[in-house]
Amino acid sequence: MPRHEFSVDMTCEGCSNAVTRVLNKLGGVQFDIDLPNKKVCINSEHSVDTLLETLGKTGKAVSYLGPK
What we know:
Helix content is 34%, strand content 35%. It is an alpha+beta fold. The chain has a four-stranded antiparallel beta sheet with strand order 2-3-1-4, with helices on one face.
């Protein structure tokens, strides 16, 4: 499964909970959240565009860092 790394502007546990919520709702993903470094690594067959759009639902600034 492809692994993608994203930068998400998370500042607290609530932010990371929002990321967890939207990714679990999308389904078909395994992910790790690195709150101190504001990064989310996602294993998923979903397209990068779909993952970006999903992470964007948190209202946080999101950017794609590339394959991991």
